[in-house]
Amino acid sequence: MKKIIAGAALAAFSLLAHALQPYVTGDKVAGGDVKAAMAAAEQKLTAAGFTVIGRHNPQGLPQHASIVVTEPGYSAALTQIGGSAVVGLPIRVGVKADGTVSYQNLEYWQRAYLRANYGKAEAAIKATSDKLQQALGAGKPFGGDVKPENLPTYRYMAGMEKFEDKNELRTYAGGFDEAVKTIRDNLAKGVAKTAKVYEVVIPEKKLAVFGVATNDPEDGEGWWAKKIGPDHVAALPWEIFVIDNKAYSLFPRYRTALAWPDLGMFQFMGIGSHPDSNHGMMAKVAGGAYEGKTQ
Fold first, then answer.
1. What percent of the chain has pLDDT over 90?
2. Which residues contact 30 (CB under 8 A, 6 or more apart)?
């Protein structure tokens, strides 16, 4: 009987050992306030060869922030794949006022985003992950276990969206240039109480991705992220991406569940208005119309 119990425990441990989690805890930096923690983390990142493209202080989460960076080899690998791979090109690092640092587990996110194309960028993903670990430290992964083989088709539950169910927001008669200009202009205007956090535009490939802060006090990220776990701040901000003459965002039920895979059903129900309101904000930023629930 003891052997059976021991074998079952070993099998369970083996499954967990092969699971991936969305975030990695880094070494603490000098804290005291969010700005000081961000500055200390940024210094480490730039010294390691990362380029800072955005800083995000989510409305309603005064003790949390994220830094968005790119890395040349990583960016080149994803650009070569093209298409929807652009959504994963920005790398997010979370910080807290007390100096706590976290960052995206790139293998987790890219197995979900690249799916069958993961192998094409695997070397760059591993090299960039190593650079992140060297720059920020390699502490305990956290955020919820998902098996690597389940990430390419990940969804929270049957009937919900997957990555491949791209949420098309608008088609632009004026092509890629009109798409980029429209999104830039609307973020600059603060349409739907949004703001730009970052942008990466690759005109030769007709690809772009924009980080979108959602600052509405009732519908924005502050209220729902606080409710389900602000320590996952490296999931923020949200994004809109452009492929040729079309603008997309990931379905909120997919994007939220991927970033919070340990979310309980009652927690998910507790932010039930978030997917629809988020979709509405992204549609307006893209310059499209939003006429009610689509999910």
1. 87
2. 36, 37, 40, 99
Please state the φ and ψ torsions of residue 94, each to the nearest 5 degrees. -100, 145
Report the side by side order of strands in the sheet with 194-202.
167-171, 246-249, 238-243, 207-214, 194-202
Does 237 sit behind a cis peptide bond, omega within 30 degrees of 0 on the bond before it? yes
Residue 159 lies in a domain: no
Do 179 and 107 reside in the same domain of the chain? no
The residue type of 138 is: A
Q: Which amino acid is at 88?
A: G
Query: Does residue 125 belong to any structural domain of this protein?
Result: yes
pTM (2 decimals)?
0.92
Rg (CA), the chain: 19
d(C-alpha 41, C-alpha 133), whole Å: 12
